[in-house]
């Protein structure tokens, strides 16, 4: 075996034998040097002071709940709030729907650096997120998770830590694998296949590696699970006033949305007796029905504002929580190839190429529309209600979930390419082995982000405003026929001959031609490119009385670029008013894209050293100088040490200064819009302060004046491997990360809340859209931009332990447990009037963090059989960080600190079972069959008191019990 081959063989052993912290359990590598993730130093027996957890190939194969490795990684307690297909379903305009992006410490995915064999990969989104789907999953030998700042080693983004996918680059043989899965309800079918070939040639100097993967998920496009039909919803007490000492919000079951129905609901009317038509809704073929408001309805049905929620009565009529996707359809395939050749015993040349393609299709929910104004001469309104019922009525306001229209869809395609060429080797320097590598890398992601069945605002308004054509109309239409008003009114300048009248009153009443006229499929195309080159050298220049001093130096250059294209018909129109405030006129209900173009480059150089100080103490320090073409110069560093006073215990401490530079989206985003609704914090029952909620569209733009975020972090811990209890390892680590100059953007609800407490700059951040506003129901337009204004503090404690007990001569029982106790996640947006809250212990969504996240496994293994049971979950918490729970004697409820009668959200505990059986096929080949049962007891998700998909989709299993069976075959 050549010297270079020996170097390659050592990490394989180091990364597959022990599940716990590798810095505590690396096997003795003898005289060979090892580079540990989180450090650039190649050194025999080096144990980094930064905590490192390793997920081995055996764990990945035996315990992954799905055929996507991201689902297994996200079970680790250090990861919280990751973006997954389950919780990105409504990321309509951001292009993130369907991706798997990792989030350490819930500091945000953009603050977790994802590497492949220690090198960066091109992003799959404009926000810089690396999609785990693009990594050749069947080649992953281990996943190294560094849970601490690592910018001094790797540069920007490694604020919360690093997730490094280590590939089996020297695999020898042929392996094939296939699996299929389904839920206990008979839906959610999925399958995957992969094939790998690795072969040495030229006497072992050369090696070729080829891999291909195909995977599919059928998707679940409607929610028919029982847990989503309980009506567990937060509703405001209609009797509450600003001086009440009872809670403002009540948590109840049997509550449903009362603001719309599948075939349309009249929420208000003007003329005759005010709102005399309120509560009429329309069923099959336009059948007129009366909505029954329950005893608890907010706002009151007799008030000026239309009801939004009701308990009892017709609470189940609204279908917005049922006609929404539970799981996307996902088709992906990828190819990976690597060729290497040792031109001498100490120099190897290599090249890598990979290509991945993914197609995501998803049901993002119904085409909900509220505030639709129907005039009294609307032909469909007259035909449905009759002229007598409309006597004295001037207008009626309609709200509908538009069951006659197809659901809003996501149709995203991503093509990601990555090419690497380089050389690596070793030479003698100062009487010791020195290791070097140099590489050049190009990555390209071609993104086509499309929304389907989206309302064109002008067209749906024109088609809805249908009248009986008068005799002698300018368009020449038959008198009495139903036509779009614009084509039969006195003006000819507003005509649109393609307009087809759309009946919104009932089920099965819409003309297919009208549906085709009012809906479209906005899209944008983007190309994200990354060019990267680097050189690294690790050597041992001298020794002190305590031992060898190791040094690593290197430099890197990187360029990131975004090129965008949006057809003119899908772009919003942005104008500036007389006061210099930009306003946006959106053409579509969502998906109003603008093309984003921009680039930046960065030059970096680093120095790292490991210095033994004697008495079991070893110092590890690093410094990196970084110069961004946009964000300027910044220095990052780390200083850490380990101390092993006795063989049984090792202490470790790290202090680091890390950065995250603004990404392409934050710098150059030309504008993207999202739509939703916000609660009116000033609402009163008399309606004098507007409706209970506003629909809105928000446009976000970039800011080229952004500077890097700064993070200062501490990690202090210990690793215990007692001699009196062999085969037991444990570690405890306290972490503290504080970010300053954080890049932050305010959401629509934040903006309107801050406006309500008198922050005028936030009142200036939104206007109304006349084309989508109705009497008493303004439609709001928000405009946001990121700034370096925020600070964030995250603290917690990681626990990890494992124990292996031999059973007989060939079997083992292994117990492993991991848990993280999160203490603080405090975000201060840096603006007066905002409330600084701790979101730890809040189970309300993706960006809050449970106090405890835990996972444990118990495995029984023989040479032919492996059985593993997994228990995992999160602790109970509260719904809102600012909520005050009380029943009587409540303090005054405010925008910042609202009162609730109940804020408790239950925790989760799931059990998985995994079985693997090996079968010897011949002397040179073997096969294994496996079955994974995820959520063995079919436990439901964490319910949230909300309408729509009423579950925490980040920490929950939404699908219920799932089964996966497969086979793996290997020929060596």
Explain what the structure shows.
- The N terminus is likely disordered.
- This protein has a 22-stranded antiparallel barrel.
- The longest helix has 12 residues.
- With 972 residues, it is mainly beta.
- A hairpin with a 2-residue loop joins β19 and β20.
- The protein is built from twelve helices and 54 strands.
- It is elongated, with a radius of gyration of 30 Å.
Give the SSE map.
Layout (H helix, E strand, L loop, with lengths): L2 H12 L7 H4 L8 E2 L6 E2 L8 E5 H7 L5 H5 L38 E5 L2 E2 L19 E7 L4 H4 L6 E7 L5 E11 L6 E12 L4 E12 L15 E4 L12 E4 L2 E3 L7 E7 L8 E3 L5 E3 L5 E3 L10 E3 L17 E16 L2 E17 L5 E7 L3 H7 L7 E8 L8 E21 L2 E21 L1 E2 L1 H8 L1 E3 L13 E3 H4 L23 H7 E2 L2 E22 L2 E19 L7 E4 L5 E4 L12 E17 L2 E12 L3 E15 L2 E12 L3 H5 L3 E8 L13 E8 L8 E12 L7 E17 L3 H9 L3 H4 L2 E3 L11 E5 L2 E21 L3 E18 L8 E2 L13 E10 L3 E10 L2 E2 L5 E2 L13 E2 L3 E2 L2 E15 L2 E10 L27 E10 L1
Parallel strand pairs: 4-7, 38-42, 49-50
Antiparallel strand pairs: 1-2, 3-6, 4-5, 6-7, 8-9, 8-54, 9-10, 10-19, 11-12, 13-18, 14-22, 15-16, 17-18, 19-20, 20-23, 21-22, 23-24, 24-29, 25-28, 26-27, 29-30, 30-33, 31-32, 33-34, 34-35, 35-36, 36-39, 37-38, 39-40, 40-43, 41-42, 43-44, 44-45, 44-46, 46-47, 47-52, 48-51, 52-53, 53-54
